[in-house]
């Protein structure tokens, strides 16, 4: 029997995706560079629809035409190495899909190169970790639109299904669009996680709540407008106890966070595009600073912590909740603003509403309020920015005071809340009638004759500043 699709790379993600495809009845040809990994998979996860091949050429030869080969190998040069091997084994019209976290510029380059060989190349963002890949991820495919129809049945079948039954997979755009959207998804994920950890610090060090109490608070939050995968798993995290000590597990986990790079890519890309994603950047920096454990320890002596306050009451918890929700709206608004800008920059015609829709299940940032974002961007004449949408404008009008209060309280208390602080600054820059840029223009003209524009007449002006103070 001929195989429907090949999965190359059988580490955690490839294995899970292959099993997911096989569960849905697709015949999967599976291959891993190190055969021992393949054997391990055959032993631990045998499946009647998965056929394992020792040689890549045999794996490819077993495929129905046009052949579909999905790469789930480490992002970077491994992808180029596998493509190089595949080029000789594939023929015109065949399709390579890269399901890893590849940098979108690499995807643009690879798509262009393979097009010359008559091959279709899809950069496919896959979110949801192992669990998502195994039982239904959110999938963001970018590549040739006509060729999408050939891979659509497989991708849409294995994708997560949102509450309305729709698959969390949709054609995103040409070349690197899918990986771009995945990158921004991860950037938003960074900001969302940072906001949640700031709310945790506030509940603990201003509110004086215990982990068990915070778990209960998060459970309650998850029944309302904050409902999301991240809030749900965080509630569980507060309840886990350490089996090596009698402490809560969270309290023995080292306070220093790692990063693999997709958040940083988002931040660098946004700077290049001239789009403000300050909350994502702040979240990357928070992880960077968290790693300076020795320095932080030393600085503690010079600048000690304030004594935790005991603001334990329901009104305080509600203020934290509203601050978190307002922060979350602003973080997603920044991410979607970057997508909107990139869409025209790269000529991708990104459908922001569709993108919000496929984030509703399967992925790490899945959240109830993505339904509202979807609606905001799919209505007739959608707003140019999420903060102009009437629903979100109303939400922020009612919740922004809580965000300001929590930022002020945290700063007074000496708690690091970079995402929330940047959320307030972003909102204030966004809505400000006086940004201070008039003074900056004057300074630029003073020292560099950069010229300035006037409010009352058009044209470009220069002033001989030095004379004023001589
Ligand atoms: P890894 O990113 O750890 O990659 C391991 C796989 O790459 C193995 O199959 C390995 O084969 C293969 N590989 C390497 Br390394 N170099 C190779 C080469 N030169 N030629 C052929 N194969 C090579 O696996 P993963 O964690 O399953 O992730 C796969 C992709 O999915 C990555 O891009 C990752 O960023 C992305 N992703 C991961 C997650 C997650 O939660 N883990 C979520 C979303 C996306 P070997 O066994 O022979 O070394």
The arrangement of helices and strands along the chain is EHEHEHEHEHEHEHHHHHHHHHHHHHHH
Shape summary: globular
Strand line-up of the largest beta sheet? 3-2-1-4-5-6-7
Q: DSSP strand (E) fraction? A: 5-15%
- In helices, the fraction of residues equals 55-70%
**Tally of strands:** 7
| Derived structural class | alpha/beta
Radius of gyration: 25 Å
Our measurement of the CA-to-CA distance between the termini, rounded to an integer number of angstroms, reads 90 Å
Sheet with most strands: 7 strands, mixed
CATH fold name of the largest domain:
N-(1-d-carboxylethyl)-l-norvaline Dehydrogenase, domain 2
Explain how this protein is built.
There is one protein chain. The protein has helices spanning 12-23, 35-44, 56-61, 77-87, 104-115, 129-135, 145-158, 177-205, 211-221, 229-239, 249-252, 262-273, 278-290, 293-302, 314-345, 352-358, 370-378, 390-413, 418-431, 437-448, 466-469; strands at residues 5-8, 28-31, 50-52, 68-71, 95-98, 120-127, 138-142. It has 470 residues and is an alpha/beta fold. It folds into three domains: 5-175, NAD(P)-binding Rossmann-like Domain (Rossmann fold), CATH 3.40.50.720; 182-431, N-(1-d-carboxylethyl)-l-norvaline Dehydrogenase, domain 2 (Orthogonal Bundle); 437-469, 6-Phosphogluconate Dehydrogenase, domain 3 (Single alpha-helices involved in coiled-coils or other helix-helix interfaces, Up-down Bundle). Strands 3-2-1-4-5-6-7 form a seven-stranded mixed sheet, sandwiched between helices. The longest helix is centred in the last third of the chain and has 32 residues, at 314-345. The protein is globular, with a radius of gyration of 25 Å. The N and C termini lie far apart (90 Å). It binds nicotinamide 8-bromo-adenine dinucleotide phosphate.
